[in-house]
Design a protein that fits this description.
The protein is an alpha+beta fold. The chain has a domain at 256-336. The protein has helices at 7-22, 63-95, 103-115, 127-136, 143-146, 158-163, 172-178, 232-235, 257-270, 276-296, 298-309, 313-323, 327-334, and strands spanning 31-37, 40-49, 52-60, 123-125, 151-155, 181-183, 194-197, 203-209, 216-219, 224-229, 240-244, 250-254. Strands 4, 5, 6, 7, 8, 9 and 10 form a seven-stranded mixed β-sheet that branches. β9 and β10 (224-229) form a beta hairpin. α10 (276-296) runs parallel beside α13. The longest helix has 33 residues, at 63-95. The protein is globular and about 75 Å long. Residues 14-66 form the DUF6788 domain. InterPro entries: DUF6788 (IPR046738), NTP_transf_8 (IPR022550), NTP_transf_8_dom (IPR058575). It comes from Paracoccus siganidrum. Residues 105-308 form the Nucleotidyltransferase-like domain.
């Protein structure tokens, strides 16, 4: 059976998640900083990106601006205490062996969360989501499951993005630009769903469910285009919040673990040719989650499987094809 974290670690994770959900959003990404130049005083929003401190201009000092910043500081006094408590929980989780993120990825996740990406419906999918089930399911991930990918996949419903009548601030493209991401070329000039980091191998991709033909769609709330894919509507229906144990914690959104497991069975069968290594990884993640969920949440797993199978013969064929190569997982699902 999967190895588990301690009861203390599980409680600390859910305390962190609850604290993050209760935390009110701030207008500023970092700390208001006063800078004097040439006899004039200016205010900047200072925040950290990895090991680098960056500043965004707020405005020239004035009684009105000073009063606004003072109100912000007064409101942050208890917020500072809450942040310290969240940081304590993060330290506890790390001491208990929870997975962390490298500073660049952690800062990117925090910046995207601060811009409202996850509040506005963005859901982390792929390996980054799988790693975050560590806290939700109290699973200790081994070396083969914990390998971190440079790719970050974020999915959202196009219809939700249109209906929200709200937008990320600062714009997602600006956040990505701050981290040296540039648009990757696509078949549609002037439109892209992939952003590649110029200083490394990191890739951020935006996805959305396809209701009909696959192709590029606009996500107005996020201000980006997304690649529409079949079966994704099943994956990101009813997502759950998750806490990233980075600095004082980052609140994001991930698919339900039982849907993630069944979706991986479908995706694994769709992969061909050069993607066979990814298909094997899909099956390994599905098998790991199926084993854990069959023990802890068998009803949720059975419902997710029934939902997928009810969506048509092609869905059932893909699930069956993957399970034919996973006899232990097939037996667990059959026994539900």
């Amino acid at each position: 059976m999967p190895d588990r974290h301690s009861a203390l670690a599980h409680a600390a994770y859910h305390d962190l998640l609850r604290a993050l959900r209760d935390e009110a959003a701030s207008d500023l990404r970092g700390t208001p900083t006063r800078v004097e130049r040439g006899g004039r005083v200016y205010w900047y929003d200072s925040y950290r990106v990895g090991a680098e401190v960056r500043k965004h201009y707020i405005g020239e000092d004035s009684p009105e601006l000073a009063a606004r910043i003072a109100r912000h500081r007064d409101a942050r006094a208890p917020a500072q205490q809450r942040r310290r408590e969240r940081a304590r929980l993060v330290r506890l989780l790390r001491a208990e062996g929870f997975l962390g993120l490298d500073p660049t990825t952690g800062s990117l996740m925090a910046a995207l969360a601060g811009a409202g990406v996850f509040r506005l419906g963005g859901t982390i999918v792929g390996t980054h989501a799988f790693r975050l089930y560590e806290g939700e399911l109290n699973l200790r991930l081994g070396l083969d499951q914990s390998a971190q990918t440079d790719d970050l996949d974020i999915a959202s419903f196009e219809r939700l993005s249109l209906a929200l009548e709200d937008a990320a601030a600062p714009p997602v493209q600006q956040v990505l630009g701050d981290f040296a991401f540039t648009p990757a070329p696509s078949l549609e000039p002037g439109r892209t769903w992939r952003w590649r980091q110029t200083s490394g191998n990191a890739l951020v991709e935006f996805l959305t469910p396809a209701f009909g033909e696959e192709g590029l769609r606009d996500l107005p709330a996020l201000g980006v285009q997304a690649q529409a894919l079949h079966h994704l509507n099943y994956l990101i229906a009813g997502p759950i919040p998750a806490a990233i144990p980075y600095r004082s914690g980052v609140l994001v959104q991930v698919p339900r673990p039982e849907r993630y497991a069944i979706h991986k069975l479908i995706v694994a069968d769709r992969r061909r040719g050069e993607d066979r290594a990814k298909a094997a990884k899909d099956r390994a993640q599905a098998a790991f989650l199926i084993e854990a969920l069959a023990e802890d949440r068998p009803d949720d797993l059975a419902e997710a499987l029934e939902d997928a199978r009810a969506r048509g013969p092609r869905w059932r064929e893909r699930i069956a094809a993957s399970l034919a190569r996973m006899p232990q997982s097939a037996a667990l699902l059959e026994a539900l």
